[in-house]
Every structure is written in C-alpha cells, then in structure tokens.
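Entry for the shared binder. Reason: the reviewer on the internal report wants the predicted structure included alongside the sequence.
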Amino acid sequence: MPCTWMTRPCGDSRRIASCRASPPARRWRGGSRRSAPERWADVRAAKVTLGRRWMLVLEPGDEVLATVTRWAEREGVTSATVDMFFGALRSARLIATNGSMDDPEPPLPDQVEVAYLEGVGAGSIGTVGGRTVVHLHLAAGAKGEGGAAYAGHLLAAETHYTLEMVVQEVLDPVFRLEPDAVFGINCLHFDEATAVS
C-alpha cells in the first residue's frame, strides 16, 4: 500500500517498513495528545522587528564565542538570532556526556571535548545583566572518529579552516536571558525595546 500522507507515494516494497498509510501520531510531553490551543498555551512568543543582517567569516584560530561576542559588542548588537553557522572546528567543548545518565531530565553537568569536527549550528545573542551573551548549539561530526556525531550547547570552540555565520539583528523585543526557576539554565525572555530620542 503506498503512503497517502507523504508528498509522493514511495511505491517501493523494500522501503515499506518506513512508510505508513497515515501520518504518525504526534506526541506532546508525557506522551499525551493535547489540542493545539492547550498545547501552545505555555509558549513564550513575541513578534519581532528585524534590523541589520550580517554574514560573518571566522578565521583559523578564532575562538568562536569570544570572537562573536566582541563583534556583537562592537556593532551594538544586543538581540539577534544566529540563523545558522557551519564550518570546521579544531576543537569544541559541549554540554554532553560519554557515560550513562541516571536521570535525563535535569541539565547535564558533564562536558565533552572533541577535536577536529565539521558541523552546523544555530543560536541567539542576548543579554544577562547587561552583558552580551552568545548562545549557540552545535551538531557536528568528528573527522577522526569516522564522523561520529556530537551535539549540544557550545561552551567553547576554536575555528580550524573557516566558520561562516548568518546573524539577524532583532530591534524589538530585547532578548534577555535569565535563569529558569526549575533547571537554573539561562532561558530567553522578551523585553520591550525603549525608544531612543
């Protein structure tokens, strides 16, 4: 039976195990299904007014977070999305673990350092107590490990050959990061931009 919910039927009996006659049920927290209004009632959202857009190119040896933070401070960028970045890294330190997790719910206290990666990522730029903070997540393959994948919150990284990044400034609202009451990690909040006269 061909897939009726896909863009086009697969029609290939060898791939039938990956096809279903109907789309898979979408699950929400705890495995229960909720209606759309109930499901999204707790989402923090804001319409954004966009500003300038940049393409950054980092050079070999550049420390990614420090370089982007200095650039943002120089340009006066306090709120932005890092729509994507990609490139080669000599090393990266991520929030991740090589061992088993007793409880996957709380934030990981562990860090993993990986050498010689190629990867992609995205993130945001905001402020914590008036200080500019670049928040990035990375998914990358380690070249010396057959492309073994690593992913997580980026704590530090050094550019190997090059790293290219697209940054979109947000004029309103202001992106503010503050610790979450439950997990203690910095989470994005929105403040109204104050008019400059």
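Summary line for the report: Residues 64-75 form the longest helix (12 residues).
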